[in-house]
Amino acid sequence: MAVIVSDTSPIRALAHLGRIGLLHNLFGIVLLPPAVDEELRHPPTGLPLVDVRELGFISIRAPNDHQRVEDLMRSLDPGESEALALALELGVSVILIDEAAGGAMAVHLGLQPVGVLGTLVRAKQRGLIDGVGSLMECLESEIGFFISEQLRTEILRRAGEL
User: Fold this and answer.
1) Strand, coil or helix: 130
2) What is the 8-class DSSP label of residue 64?
3) Could you list the pLDDT tens digit for every one of the 162 residues in the chain?
């Protein structure tokens, strides 16, 4: 079974939509570093707590390369830093990450970043969900997920909804 590492935002967004199981269907085993688990269980004001510990396809795993994590934390938050370090250690090629700085660093490190919107497109292409547009609107209006007009157009085009 395939393994993927995730940062906080894709997990939070999919949990909000009630679609966290899509990760198992699309990617197999999902690994979260401890900082991501901490961010999910202790969210900023206004966002719900997400506890993934009871989901059989999500596991918590710490990266071993503490120096790499510290280096990444010079420009990224702890969750992104640990997720990138863990992905590199495990040799996975794809990482679930939404934030622009984290995605840019993933590319710089040779990883392919996929965000929640890309995950939804993959799910639609595999017939796991009916549409992406209404789910994007839900993320924007209910949890303040930012989607630029350019990205919205690209996602809807890729999902076959334009």
Assistant:
1) coil
2) S
3) 688 999 999 999 999 999 999 999 999 899 999 999 999 999 887 778 888 888 889 999 999 999 999 999 999 999 999 999 999 999 999 999 999 999 999 999 999 999 999 999 999 999 999 999 999 999 999 988 899 999 999 999 999 998
Kindly report the pTM of this predicted structure. 0.92
> Which CATH number does the domain housing residue 103 bear?
3.40.50.1010
> Residues 64-92, buried b or exposed e (16+ Cβ, 10 A)?
eeeebbeebeeebbbbbbbbbbbbbeeeb
Gap between the Cα atoms of 49 and 81, Å rounded: 21
Residues of the domain holding 73: 3-129
Rounded Cα gap, residues 92 and 120, in angstroms: 20
